[in-house]
Amino acid sequence: MTEHDSPDDGVSEQPTDEDPVRADEGPARTGEERVRTDGGETGIVPPDDETPTWSERKERRQGLARTTYEYFERSRREDQDLREESDYVERDVLGFPTWPHEVVRNLALTSFFVGMLVFLAAALPPHIGAPANSGVTPPTILPDWYLYWSFGLLKLGPLNPDLALLGDQKLMADRTFGVLANLVVVGAIAVVPFINKGSARRPVEQPFWAAVGVFGVILSVTLAALSIKNLLPLDSHLLFDLTFLLPFVGAFITYAALKSMREGYMFELNRRYYRLRPPK
Amino acid sequence: MSLERPDDHDHDAWMEKRDFSRVERMYLTVLIWFDKRLRIVDYLEILEGLYYKVNMQMPKSHTEQYGLDNKFWYWYPLYALGSFSTLAYIVAAISGALLGFYYSPGALGASGDPTIAYESLTFIMTDLNFGFMLRSIHRWAAQVMVAAVFLHMLRVYFTGAYKEPRELNWLLGIVLISLTLLFGYSGYLLPWDQLAFWAGQIGVEMSLSIPLIGEWVAQLIFGGFTPNPATLQRMYILHVFFLPFVVTTLIAVHIAIVWMQGIAEPH
Questions:
Q1: Lowest-confidence segment of A82-91, A102-111, B230-239 by average pLDDT
Q2: Would the CB atoms of A132 and B52 count as touching at under 8 Å?
Q3: Model confidence at A27, in pLDDT bands (50, 70, 90)?
Q4: What CATH number has the domain spanning B79-261?
Q5: Interface residue A142 vs chain B (CB under 8 A)
Q6: What residues have CB less than 8 Å from B265, skipping those under 6 apart?
Q7: How far is Cα B264 from Cα B114, in angstroms, rounded to an integer?
């Protein structure tokens, strides 16, 4: 709580089952005076007397449903407290007007985008090859470009470890290894938000994670190149090595660059931030 | 003087008294007609409540709050990529539905003869008015959608938008990007030309190489251990029936979560 205007506020804020907060005050919200707005109401509609409070509802329930309602009440109170604690200025006009401003802007962007699509379609129409024939294997077999990276992962046979224990036999077939590699890549992407937490947003704030991202981007490109290795005028062993070397090179360069930018960047950012919100 | 009480619910008399314009009268007549039968007013009240609650969830953006938009922040154009992929998806859905009027997924065995699917494609591309353009639009919409989805993922990664409260949407995004690729792959097989056939071969081999359940997966998705007419049939059903429902639903949930959580801006 930042400031208390009326002395009994702290008391009446306490939720009690016998005496709900808003029972005696009608629809007006208790803490309305403390929410600063740039004029007028906040636009938040408080529940009226007819609406049963969460405590009233939960009294009729048992078991999990009751627990759920109890939690809802807690979270609602949490919201309320956070709203009152913050020095956040709520607005009268809650956003950019939808009509006409937002709608016109969106329609313009949409028609431009669809127009680009149609133009592209007219300029570069697709063609169709010979009909399917199981008897003739074409010289190049390729999926669409966006699956090249996955196709490249299927060609990682040389990385498949063979165990001395099994008499230099491979643990799994090369193609199983390739499919597994696909799953590993997707899994690695999936766990990112559970490893990297916190409020940092810009790459400069976390050079390491930016480097990891650049590693991933370059790896997907080099894997795509690996998948079409019979079309590239490059020694296939060199290509294979480059596939895994280039991502590291890119990652190191990114890390070094961001690390050296970081100092000055953070200084600027902090200065601007504290100028706007001087520390109390 | 009549002993009857004036009827408070005589809406027609009220409308006469109020001297509405023609448009207002038409609108009210329709509204009252529906409201007498369905009591829509109750639902309108719910909608009104939702309206205020939704607006309550949309606070000033971080940039606005701290006056950071005095500079052009170079990530902002990239924030359009998500909507671009949605738009491309809509364009692909419309053009795809039109193509579906003329396409039939029949393969008469892969013995070298042209098949029904291939012939319907040649028909679309050579005889049908606007057909070539239609196919071109559909294909390019798909390409652009995939490209936009990839770039969208990169944008989300490099602006750290996947962090703490948004993990769920990141996971949902991974599911969506995989389904998009599946969409593209199943569509790639539909022309049933050489490329499609041998791409199908790769797909069959990939699923066969899954340990333990590989053969079962190949049977389920490809209908056999080599590309065959059943493969084309299944890819068709995946492409026009199964995936559209699933992907459309997931896109709606994805966008709804973005709406609820707000857009994560770099700061």
A1: A82-91
A2: no
A3: very low
A4: 1.20.810.10
A5: yes
A6: A201, B61, B62, B63, B159
A7: 52
Distance from CA of B1 to the nearest CA of A (A): 40
Please write down the long-range contacts of A187-192, taking CB distance under 8 Å and 24 or more positions apart.
A189/A216, A189/B174, A190/B170, A190/B171, A190/B174, A192/B157, A192/B162, A192/B170
Domain regions of chain B by residue span: 1-56, 79-261
Number of other CB atoms surrounding residue B175 within 10 Å: 15
Contacts of B202 in chain A (CB under 8 A): 141, 143, 151, 154
* Of residues B91, B112, B184, nearest to A117 (C-beta): B91
- A14 half-sphere exposure, CB direction, 13 A CA radius: 5
Average pLDDT, chain A: 76
The pLDDT of residue B110 is above 60 = no
Q: With an 8 Å Cβ cutoff, is B224 touching chain A? A: no
* 3 state SS of A276: helix
In whole angstroms, give the CA distance from residue B122 to residue B158: 44
pLDDT over 50 (residue A3): no
Taking the C-alpha atoms of residue B255 and residue B63, their distance in angstroms, rounded to an integer, is 21
Q: Which residues contact B128 (CB under 8 A, 6 or more apart)?
A: B102, B134
CA distance A61 to B227: 57
Chain A, window 81-100: residues with a beta carbon less than 8 angstroms from a chain B beta carbon: 88-91, 94-95
Contact A147 B181 (CB under 8 A): yes
Of B137, B164, B184, the CB nearest to A117: B137
User: H helices of chain A, where?
Assistant: 9-12, 54-59, 63-85, 103-123, 148-153, 174-195, 207-227, 236-276
Q: Which residues does chain B have within 8 Å of residue A210's beta carbon, measured at their own beta carbons?
A: 158
Residue A76's contacts (CB-CB under 8 Å, 6 or more residues apart) are A54
B70 at the A interface (CB within 8 A)?
no
B184: closest chain A residue by CA: A144
Q: What is the largest CA-CA distance in chain A?
A: 90
